[in-house]
Amino acid sequence: MSARLLPAPLTKGGRVGVVTVSAPEPAAHPDVFDRGLDRLRSRGYEPVIASHATSRDGYRAGSETQLMEDFHAFLADPGIDAVVCAGGGRSANRLLRGLDYELIAEHPKPIVGVSDPSLLLNAITARTGLITFHGPAVLWDFGAEEPPAATGDHFAAVLAGDAGAARIDAPLTWARTGTARGHLVAGCLSSLRCLLGTVWEPDWNGAVLAWEDAFKPVEQLDQALTHFRDRGVLDQIAGMVVGDLVSCEPSGGVSAHEMVMDLCAEYDFPVAFGLPFGHTPLKHTLPVGAEALLDSDAARLTITSPWTTQGGEKR
Question: Is this prediction's pTM over 0.70?
Fold first, then answer.
């Protein structure tokens, strides 16, 4: 990973560029999208909608060029303070080779996404060193009928660089105890898998890997995690924390917990389950690329390095 690059914090009054990088979800669910924009406004932000954020082009919101131009325009615009993804999908990796990573590094801003866009977050961090943020989407989180207030509260605290947000207080279940320190790689497992073997692959050496997924049977998660093992990822990481696996049902009577620990049996890094992030309504915002401490004695995940240019002091 490149040397760490910190974005400026996002505070109330900040202008938030809203982009769609994959599925045309705002076009399919305009009422939910509008509700999400209203919730951002109620929290003191000014959302600015990208040119193609509400468009539809088959199963994507636009062509690769159109979606990249939206993204680049917000990065280059000094009047935009952060970029937040509208929703998810399955084709965000189409943008990987066309992103202007030099432009991203020259204009370090908070970039937030979840699900499919999590691969872009980790690719950007790997190529530029910029801390990115695995956090709520405009549609499915801010636009939910009754979103947990804690989701928006933690988003606001983390992006403002509030040092108090460094402690991720969640009731983790420890499958294997221990302590792990390293930079944080966080995302949807099936999306992160798209980066394996590419020039955008994260630096796994000494990493704390936080992963989650949704709507997949355990045997499909097994296939994905085995790919990580056979790529050598599990030989390199310092620790693993698994998020809430939404609607990931057992296969052949085998639970996700059993599958993960079977694949991790030959390693000795700590493994925890139950971190609320990703597809679950109650979610924490995680700074990808920041230093993290996974500690079973303290029973928590803690971010231990700054993640914005102000606040987020080392703990």
Answer: yes
